[in-house]
Amino acid sequence: AQSVTQPDIHITVSEGASLELRCNYSYGATPYLFWYVQSPGQGLQLLLKYFSGDTLVQGIKGFEAEFKRSQSSFNLRKPSVHWSDAAEYFCAVGNNAGNMLTFGGGTRLMVKP
Amino acid sequence: DTGVSQDPRHKITKRGQNVTFRCDPISEHNRLYWYRQTLGQGPEFLTYFQNEAQLEKSRLLSDRFSAERPKGSFSTLEIQRTEQGDSAMYLCASSLGASGREYEQYFGPGTRLTVT
Q1: Which residues 16-55 of A are in CB contact (within 8 Å) with B?
Q2: Residue-wise pLDDT tens digits, A76-90
């Protein structure tokens, strides 16, 4: 069975500082990996995805993520955080049939001025 | 592209009542998904449709839950005899069933259900 772990429940960073959110997955085959962001009262927005190929993927809003098969990780990064990035971030793995996403528990990001 | 819409956005009901939620996917998307999200948790998969066919159901979907997508467009999720444990955000997503694109699920704003 597939699973996703996001070890950090809360993270606080200062505006302008760099950010890394951790994600570890468990899946028997080549994973399809995603990062979503959820702001209060908003739906989940897809930030970026990894299917195959280059292990460093670029997303929207200046985010990037790196797939490391040896570590079963797909960490999300941003070089300089803006106050508007404060939200909850979810990592997810998709099954090969493309009919189900399994999400991690989320990381709540707070940004200090 | 108007995005995925859900109605209502909020629903408060008394225990034992039935509730129904509606989801309108992105118009050209033939795949539709329902998820449930409780406070402080990530979304959990409930069920999935390809066109009008319900092809996958989670064990979380007890027999009090039923989902339909009668014409392969909008979908409804009904919960009968609601219990307090059903209180959650119910999320709908859709995707295009074309090669590679089926993995890109686009989510609606959700329906928040509170059972009193």
Answers
A1: 32, 34, 36, 41-46, 49, 51
A2: 999 999 999 999 999
Extended beta strands in chain B, E state: 5-7, 10-13, 19-24, 31-37, 44-50, 53-57, 65-68, 75-79, 88-95, 106-107, 111-115
Q: Which residues of A21-35 are buried (b: 16+ CB within 10 A; e: fewer)?
A: bbbbbebeeebbbbb
Which of A37, A23, A33, A53 is closest to A95 using CA atoms?
A: A33
The more confidently predicted of residues B1 and A110 is A110
Contact between chains at B33 and A105 (C-beta distance less than 8 A): no
**Main-chain dihedrals φ then ψ at residue B84, nearest 5 degrees:** -60, -30
